[in-house]
TrEMBL record:
GO terms for molecular function: carboxypeptidase activity; transferase activity. The active site is at residues 543, 562. Pathway: Cell wall biogenesis; peptidoglycan biosynthesis. The keyword Transferase applies. Gene3D superfamilies: L,D-transpeptidase catalytic domain-like, PGBD-like superfamily/PGBD. Keywords: Cell shape, Cell wall biogenesis/degradation, Peptidoglycan synthesis, Signal, Transferase. This is Murein L,D-transpeptidase YcbB/YkuD. The keyword Transmembrane does not apply. SUPFAM superfamilies: L,D-transpeptidase catalytic domain-like, PGBD-like. It comes from the Bacteria. Coiled coil: none annotated. It comes from Onishia taeanensis.
Amino acid sequence: MGNVIDRPGHRLPRRVLGPCLLVLGLTCAASGAWAQVEAVSAETISAETVLLHTRVSETLPSETVPSEARTGQAATVEGTGSESPAEVGVEVEEPPAPEAAPGSSSAPTALATPFEAYVRAASQPLTHGSDLLSFYEVFGFRQAWADQARVEALTSALEGLDADGLVVADYSTAALLAAYRDPIDVTSLGESTSEVARWRFELAATQRLVLALRHLYLGKVDPVRTDAEWEIPLPDFAPDWAAIASAVANGDPAAALEQVRPHQTAYRQLRQGLARYRTLQAAGGWIPLASLTGVLRPGDRALEVIALRRRLAALGDLELLMPDLTPTASASGLGATQDAVPEPGLASGSSADQIYDARLVAAVERFQHEHLLEVDGVVGPRTWTALSVSVAERVDQIRLNLERLRWLSHALPERYVLVDIAGYEVSYVRPGQPTWQSRVVVGRPYRRTPTLRSAITHMTFHPTWTVPPTILREDVLPAVRRDPFYLVRHDMRVLDRQGWPLDPWQVDWWRPGPIKIQQRAGPSNPLGDVVIRFPNRHLVYLHDTPSRSLFDRAQRSFSSGCIRVEGVLELVQLLFEDDRASPDEPDGAARLSRALQRTDTHNVRLRVPVPVFLFYSTVQPAADGRLIFRPDVYERDATVLAALVEKGGENLFDAP
């Protein structure tokens, strides 16, 4: 067989030449250099060589396939696309194939078909190529997009991702459909190259599906790119490939996407809210409110009251519409454009409509409550500004928060504690049990509560408080320099690096060195009766507080980064209750009571750590499905939105 290639007269018909051109032109096809495939001469290749090369290329890693045949003949095809050129050699004799590693997807157990060989090699240089390969392995290395109906179903499903707030342009659906409907003219290149062109289109279509699956599963944007403090690791991309392949086989790629779409109720409600706001946006939205002069108080009469009625009706906070408004607005208010009228038209309202009456006051208070404004019924600058946010801005706000939910969705276990930083709430989610919720105080904008994932390991009862370095440097040291009795009045002591007490009167407070300041347990201790601890580099935790009046404030960003929890002992009791190994052990209430009865500072560990998430979101659905928009207290929305709308998909495998 050593001189088979040199035999004269061994010419192959194009139907036999196809697999050969696939193997020799693989890199060329992956990079779009179709014309160079013609350069391969059918006169120098035998059918035996084709078979052997197909087998060798599937059993050897690509780096180990020599670039020249042992006969001295070389078949080299260079690519001209974004991937680097590669040399593909033709072996005359078949070497022994190495054993594939267990679970390896790079080496098939049976002789590969030409299409399988193409998929395996072409997917290697691609971003997420392993996902592409996973799909085809489950799909049996069959072609998924061989007819127009399936291609159109795919493009329709991808375009439907607009409902998730994703950017449809990332998937190049128009170009993909055009490539199928109007393929390149490959008749001059021969039957085999035409087949490779079809395979290339096949991979281009599947890669777009894979990209969409990843976007729904993990989000499009890398959260660390938008927030250097983001410390919630994204989960591994582990979809149910069998279910996805089944949906594709049934001609329903939309069902494949549904397999990975976040299943949480909040995500579904945000999608529904996005659809409603887009309907309102398509109908014209609403015009900006005129500037408010002064404030509106209950009982006032003003033309601005008519604009206020219209806006609250459109938002769904006012159920009864004015008589001169079209009655198409539902309680959700999204689908009506009643206040999208010229400003002079406000005068068309009756005299009674200009009165800021009790019913309108109630609607304003509801709006204030849901937008985390002070609930007083007085329409001042902050309330008027929140009312003036455009429909387009709300659409963007919903979109970027859908992206945040995608970051988190597949990372959530069955049981977890979640701190909603921008919503000033904490929830304890337990399977089969009602969710426990309470209000929290979080970090100031210049001392932000970080976004992170950890696990609650233990509680500290009657805790001392060691002043964190930032607070020591920026707050306590300046206070001690101003007031020598500051430490005495706050029941604080000074410790050295090893934790030994120091005489505060012997410390140079302008150059104190590596000291610590610790506040003893007691009623004035800012940590209260208990601290819920979880490992993190920021040294933040959940804790009790003696300053409980702050929970009544609408916006509660007053801490130095830690999370103060209203009713924290209820949460501790539930954590203890769920930590019982058997019904014979003390219940949560008994365990909590025993810990509180001790007067010393001590820790109580959980048998099983409980996952905890500190999360940031500026839109939250209410119980009735209406959306609650929160102030972006940490100003994080803009960077997420910019990254979300940025054109992606730059490493997509081009359709021929």
